[in-house]
Design a protein that fits this description.
Radius of gyration: 18 Å
Number of strands: 8
Oligomer: single chain
Number of domains: 1
Strand content: 35-45%
Distance between the termini: 30 Å
Helix content: 10-25%
Structural class: alpha+beta
Shape: elongated
Order of helices and strands: EEEHHHEHEEEE
Length: about 210
């Protein structure tokens, strides 16, 4: 399972200020949450301590935005998100919502890949994108403990990755959201998640 791509974005000039939010890219994947690499075998459990910082949207701001974002969604889209993503973390909810708004209703369109979006010319889509564009990201600390259990009789290496969704607009502005409790274990070299599994995750995401 590939981790999120890391790319340097440069601010582009020549875009009208009132339309920069209508086009951009969505990148969905997993970010490495710890530099620690553990070795596990089937049934063996290892504790991995997590402690990192990033710029992201707070839970409170995200909750307020999500309430406003529903105004730009159809009844069918709202019902689907309520039924399937009521308890989802920020990245998972955004993944489905951006798919609904920008990919003809395909809620999984952006899963585990990078692709473009274009909301220009449709008022509801433009409103949704503008509301997300205006979100403020602040520095957060994510820390806690993750238990990784081996799934193969052959010893294998594993690192912990966390779900990340990154939206980059046409002017270079980018906003990322994470699911701090959607952690997976995978081989850091092959990114194969089949030989290890996260069996318990207790992470705290605190605005600094």
């Amino acid at each position: 399972m590939p981790h999120i791509q890391v790319i340097e974005y440069f601010t582009q000039r020549g875009f009208a200020e009132d339309t920069v939010y209508t086009q951009g890219t969505v990148t969905d994947g997993f970010g490495k949450a710890s530099g620690l690499v553990v070795e596990v075998t089937k049934g063996a459990e290892v504790d991995v301590n997590i402690d990192f910082e990033l710029m992201t949207v707070s839970e409170a701001r995200f909750s307020e935005w999500k309430t406003r974002a529903y105004d730009y969604l159809s009844t069918e889209q709202r019902s689907y998100l309520e039924e399937h993503h009521r308890a989802s973390g920020k990245a998972s909810w955004c993944l489905a919502a951006f798919g609904a708004v920008s990919a003809s209703g395909n809620y999984d369109h952006y899963r585990n890949k990078t692709d473009t979006f274009n909301a220009e010319g449709v008022a509801e889509r433009e409103g949704f994108m503008k509301s997300f564009y205006d979100l403020e990201a602040t520095r957060h600390r994510v820390s806690g403990n993750v238990k990784v259990t081996g799934q193969s009789h052959i010893p294998s290496k594993a690192s912990v990755f966390i779900h990340v969704l990154k939206i980059t607009f046409s002017d270079g502005r980018s906003i990322q959201v994470i699911d701090s409790n959607n952690a997976v274990a995978a081989d850091p070299s092959t990114l194969d998640p089949s030989k290890s599994q996260v069996t318990d995750s207790k992470l705290n995401e605190v605005e600094m």
